[in-house]
Every structure is written in C-alpha cells, then in structure tokens.
Amino acid sequence: MTKKENIILGIDPGTNVMGYGLIKCAGQQMTLIQFGVIHLSKYKNHEVKLQKIFDRVSALIEEYIPDEVALESPFFGKDVQAMLKLGRAQGVAMAAALSKEIPINEYAPRKVKQAVTGNGNASKEQVAAMIKNLLKFDGDPKLHDATDALAVAVCHNFSFRLNLGGRTSGSSWKSFISENPKRIK
Question: Which residues are catalytic?
Fold first, then answer.
C-alpha cells in the first residue's frame, strides 16, 4: 500500500542565509506548510554557523516530520573557499536528515529552475513568482532563499511524480549504497 501524502523539506544551503520550505504532496496537489530562512551572518565563527544549521534543520524535522529532504546541490564557482563552506553547510543539513533516517535528494540549480519555470536560466524573481503561483500563497518573501528552498521541494515532487531522473525517494543515499556495494570502499 502506498502512502497518500508526502511531506518534503526543501533546503537551499547557505552560510549567511539558508532557506527552507516544507510542502505536503497528495497526488498532484501541493500545499504549502511552512517556509523561511535561517540567518547565519551574525555568527562570525564558521563552526558555530554549522552547529546552528544542524540544530535548526533538526528542529524542523522534529516539528514537521518530513518524509524526504531535497537539497539544492552546490554550483561550481571560482571561489574555492566559498564552495568549501557551502559544501559543509549542505553536509551538515544532510547529516541532520540522515540522523533521523530521512532520505536525501539533491538537485542542481538549473534542474530546479527548469522544473519550476520551464527555463533552466530563470531568475530568482521568476522562480519566486512561479512558486507563489504553484503553491497559491500571497505576500512577497523578502529573501529568495526561502522560495528557492520551496522550489527544490517542488522540483523533487515533480521528479518523483513524473520520474524525471535524478535521485528520488526510491533511490536515496541509503538505497544507492545498498544497490551499489562495490562502489563503496
């Protein structure tokens, strides 16, 4: 018997501002549960930022009990130190989900934009406008990190529902490891 509802926690990793968004999916219907940002720029110590990310993601998981977590994967940039810090932030968010045995799914920024707007080069404003339309909410979020996180959750829902590729709920890290034992050393 398959589950009729699915809660997805979308995360847009960041070391100054991290966006999060939760949606409930039932068939083709998506409902907004919650979204927001974690402000981290006030903490100067990178390790403290990572602890705050872990704590907040863990609290969101405990409060909303998502079935899956979808993260935007880091894009490649020229600033190696920034990429390293962003990767750590993503890893800490992943660890929070893994500590609760929640499947993790990653999506490239272009794939998220393509899934939500039909254009892999869409602006943050275009993504935010489409998310507001898809999830039927008013207001204008001040930071696009929250709508970006919702876009990751929506992208995951579309990928799962339409089997568009990428790792979906049936192929989380846990199932990847069990299906590919020779690739793990």
Answer: 12, 72, 145
Q: Note the pTM of the prediction, 2 decimals.
A: 0.84
CA distance 51 to 124: 27
Q: Are 24 and 7 in contact (CB under 8 A)?
A: yes
Q: Token pair for residue 34?
A: 């919650």
- Reference 23, options 52, 64, 75; nearest CA is 64
What is the Cα–Cα distance from 101 to 111, expressed in whole angstroms?
Answer: 25
Please write the tens of the pLDDT for every residue from 26-38. 988 999 999 999 9
Between the alpha carbon of residue 34 and those of residues 19, 81, 133, 158, 171, the distances in Å are 11, 32, 16, 19, 26
Q: How far apart are CA 167 and CA 156, in angstroms?
A: 9
Q: 135-148: per-residue pLDDT in tens?
A: 998 877 677 999 99
Instruction: Tell me the C-alpha distance between 50 and 165, whole Å.
Output: 30
What is the set of domains in the chain, with CATH numbers?
6-183 (3.30.420.10)
